[in-house]
Design goal:
By secondary structure, this protein is α/β, with parallel strands linked by helices. The protein has 8 helices and 7 strands. Strands 1, 2, 3, 4, 5, 6 and 7 form a 7-stranded mixed sheet that branches.
Length: 223
């Protein structure tokens, strides 16, 4: 796994920890029950392992790993995008966990059929605006039509063999999982994302206060 810091200028450094990212890929069965439900304690450990890769063991030990599951419609994205170092390690998940049978079957989830059109709309509306505004708009506009994937979905898709990953995620852009937020070392609230790089997926968390540009996309799943 790897870390992209808050600034868009850091995106060019994303290959730095690519090998560590590949080594850290999980065995999907290690934290999933037979019904496809994630063991929260095991997932907390995956978050901790992420921080070890991103920040090193000493700094990662300072994280207070804590999951919350506030309904997405109640999230105040403007408020949480403000840095708070005391919140390092906190992460949120989408409480709507319906439709995850694909995890048990080890299949790629169904990407929304009109996702390309939706991403074009977001580019027109939000180019140069904070990512926090994009997340709020997506939740308000599409939350009742699609399932908004979170870090569990990101973790699962990241673990898939390259030939199982949807072509929709292989365009070299950052694809955000808007059902989660994650607090990094500086307390910045970030959105988890995946990017196809060198014939495999890489992952990151990018600052909600960062700007939405042409390399940014969202992921929506069919319910």
């Amino acid at each position: 796994m790897k870390k992209i810091m808050g600034s868009d200028d850091d995106i060019g450094n994303h290959k730095k920890n690519l090998e560590e990212s590949i080594k850290a890929r999980p065995d999907v069965g290690a934290y999933l029950s037979k019904s496809g439900v994630v063991n929260r304690e095991e997932f907390d450990m995956k978050v901790k392992e992420t921080f070890v890769v991103w920040y090193g063991k000493e700094d990662a030990s300072k994280a207070n790993i804590k999951m919350s599951s506030t309904p997405l419609a109640e999230m105040d994205y403007e408020a949480i995008r403000k840095a708070d170092p005391s919140k390092f390690g906190e992460y949120s998940m989408n409480p709507d966990r319906k439709g995850t049978e694909y995890i048990e079957k080890k299949e790629m989830p169904k990407i929304a059929k009109d996702l390309n059109e939706i991403n074009k709309e977001l580019q027109q509306k939000f180019n140069g605006k904070p990512r926090s505004e994009v997340l709020k708009y997506v939740v308000d506009t599409y939350g009742d039509k699609y399932r908004l994937p979170d870090m569990e979905d990101q973790e699962y898709i990241f673990s898939l063999p390259p030939d199982k990953v949807s072509e929709a995620l292989k365009d070299g852009n950052w694809h955000y999982f808007v059902g989660s937020t994650l607090r990094g070392q500086n307390g910045d609230a970030e959105a988890p994302a995946l990017r196809w790089d060198d014939e495999r997926l890489d992952r990151a968390a990018l600052w909600l206060g960062g700007r939405w540009y042409s390399h940014d996309r969202i992921v929506l799943l069919e319910k």
